[in-house]
């Protein structure tokens, strides 16, 4: 059974920082691209950051470039998202995501963790 369990969501003031973590089980972690998506009410879930399985390539959505950093630790089956200089537009539910390319694409999602940026 595949599980992606997020932690670290919280209420933070504008300009503050937060670090999200996701622990994966039930998958060969090193063979999966890992990433973070976010969603606000009434909007589609959108990519925040993604790191390839080899860890040699990352993608960030434009609005978080220079503020967010994605990390992965294959030894601990963990992916983290360091978020700095947070603003109200970063308020969302953040979802951990795993993707594997084989003869078909397999995708997995965590249940989400709430990040609220407010004064």
Sum this structure up briefly.
The chain has strands at 3-7, 11-12, 18-25, 33-39, 46-51, 58-60, 68-73, 78-83, 92-101, 105-109, 113-117. It is mainly beta. Strands 2, 4, 5, 6, 9, 10 and 11 form a seven-stranded mixed sheet that branches.
Radius of gyration (CA) equals 14 Å
Largest sheet: 7 strands, mixed
Global morphology:
globular
Strand content: over 45%
Count all strands and give the number: 11
Task: Please explain how this structure is put together.
- The strands form 2 sheets. Strands 2, 4, 5, 6, 9, 10 and 11 form a 7-stranded mixed sheet that branches.
- The chain has 119 residues and is mainly β.
- The chain has strands spanning 3-7, 11-12, 18-25, 33-39, 46-51, 58-60, 68-73, 78-83, 92-101, 105-109, 113-117.
- The model has no long low-confidence stretch (mean pLDDT 97).
